[in-house]
Write a structure and sequence with these properties.
The complex is a heterodimer of chains A (about 350) and B (about 300). With about 350 residues, chain A is mostly helical. In chain A, about 65% of the residues lie in helices and about 0% in strands. Chain A is built from ten helices and no strands. Chain A has helices at about 55-75, 80-105, 125-150, 155-190, 195, 200-220, 230-250, 260-285, 290-320, 325-340. In chain A, helix 1 packs antiparallel against helix 9, helix 3 runs antiparallel to helix 4 and helix 8 packs antiparallel against helix 9 (about 290-320). The radius of gyration of chain A is 23 Å and the shape is globular. Chain B has about 300 residues and is α+β, with helices and mostly antiparallel strands. Chain B is about 30% helix and about 15% strand. Chain B has a four-stranded mixed beta sheet. In chain B, strands 2-3 form a two-stranded antiparallel ribbon. In chain B, strand 4 (about 140) and strand 5 form a beta hairpin. Chain B is globular, with a radius of gyration of 22 Å. Chain B starts with 10 loop residues before the first helix and ends in a 5-residue tail after the last helix. Residues about 1-5, about 85-90 and about 95-100 of chain B have low confidence and may be disordered. Classes of the chains: A mainly alpha (about 350), B alpha+beta (about 300). Chains A and B meet through helix 1, helix 3, helix 4, helix 6 and helix 7 of A and strand 2, helix 5, helix 6, strand 6 and helix 10 of B.
Chain lengths: ~350, ~300
Amino acid sequence: MTAEPLPGAAAGMPQRRRRGGGGRSGERLMVPPATFASYYGRPIVKAAPWELDIPAYLFLGGLAAGSSLLAAGADLTNRPELRRVARLGALAGGAAGTAALIHDLGKPMRFLNMMRTVKPTSPMSMGTWVLAAYGPLASLAAAAEVAAMLPRPVPIAGRLLALGARPAGVLAAALAPALASYTGVLLADTATPAWHAAWRELPLIFAGSAAASAGGLAMLGTGVAQAAPARRLAVGGAVLALTMEARMGRSMGLSAETLRTGKAKRLMDASRALTIGGALGTILFGSRIRGAARVSGAALLAGSVCTRFAIFEAGQQSALDPRYTVVPQRQRLEERAAAVADRP
Amino acid sequence: MRSRWSSSSDPAADTGWTDAPARKGFFTDSSICIGCKACEVACKEWNGIPEDGLQMLGMSYDNTGGLGASTWRHVAFIEQPRRATGAPGLTPLPMFAATSGQNSPAAAAETGIRWLMSSDVCKHCTQAACLDVCPTGSLTRTEFGTVVVQDDICNGCGYCIPACPFGVIDRRQGPPGARNVGIAQKCTLCYDRLSDGLTPACAQACPTQSIQFGDLDELRVRAQRRVEDLHAVGVADARLYGADPNDGIGGAGAFFLLLDEPEVYGLPPDPVVTTSDLPAMWRTAAIAGATLLAGAAAAFVRARP
């Protein structure tokens, strides 16, 4: 841990916030103090050791979940083209996402240790179980599509797959909402300032982003005739994600800064532009022009990727700067002291 | 897995231990720490912790920097500019006042600097976020009420690292070939020594008894008395950190006496276990999931095939 040079070390002396003195209990702090104390600018909480595997999984898992919902709906309403694209998307997202999760472990060979216990206090434990149940079901549904695409019918297995595909697909869709939204809790249930501060919005943003990306993928791969539900899901998801992102910016407090600076800002701006553009393109041209539908779908997919990476990056930055840990906690203490002082 | 959302002063019993011994802990009294780092060395020696960097950090007399996977005790060393005369906290400690050492009033007046030293360690929280979020069950509560990583179970998922409100635990990165590379590591309160009735290595090595080990109840009483004594002789800034069972982590198993605000030492001023908000987070996720399901269903309603 001592290997890297320290970003705040040049500051020299530990910075001092103003001394509260005797008057502290009476005053209420409405704006964060300009200065604060820290130990030579060093971080207090540690940033997650996660590589880009994790934001990639956030996207891929969401894509899989949204695709399974579309696939089940397409299956039940007789839209075979949409069903095929969505089932294959669910398989690809689920498989690639799982691979990313295992790759990110410090000891990948021990990934099965995740199945030692079921812990509601651990969003990662709950998510593992959801994914473990979802994966085989989504794979079975997708396998049936692959079997049907083969030049010659597979004798017995193909028949069994065709029979099992619908129940498996519907069950996968039943798990999909949990798969799409638990990742918001996964990030929020940490001491990382920007993630924890966004706990009210993250699950909703991720659910919306999952819907937008799955709708986008289906628009990319399906003709306009069968893609009407995908367009609706995509636009609905985009609206949900954008609305909740705006609310998040207001409710997070100080750590919202991390979404408005540096790489996270660039990613967030890109995410907003791509999602708005994709949704508008979907509404205006999605039902008429195949090429425009494809471009819009790709924009929505890219927008979802940017959303996940932006939020991931903002959290990492908020952990590196002790300001985001110290200042809100100081404020909390002073508000509590003021409340005690106000009591008659 | 039993819920850990309820507050309790006996975490071992909560976890299911029967006939558990009294909860053990550390009281680190920074007012008598001399910054010798014997605790860091003893900890590394006893626990077989690999070397993790020999750099000059260019800040004070601390080249360790902070706690990590291969640093389970860390001595913070703060060089602080003198505050205005009469400000609380600058009062030289009485045990040094009689001598003419670095901390004597004369020395402080001469240099305009005071030194603060404190040996940081895992807090062994009553409500431990690392333990709550660990998906493998590798992090466990021992019969002594401490929190320990089981090296043979941890798969290095890294979730405990951002969960810890103090930034204590970390994943060991190297050096290549060292023990437990890739998995989460932190202070065990010398679980092996405790099991044999010994004092943890750091407390054993501390030459000034700044690090005191014992039954937590007793340490809290002792610490309270120490603060009162310091206040009585004019050290107004002396305060306990982590000793209150009603704080955001249910009280720390390893707590401190500090001479300035916690953040000056690199400690969070008001740590809260993140899982205290988890029930509300799950409710939000349920709403998000229901919204997604309803939205997907609505997308197919009245859309012509």
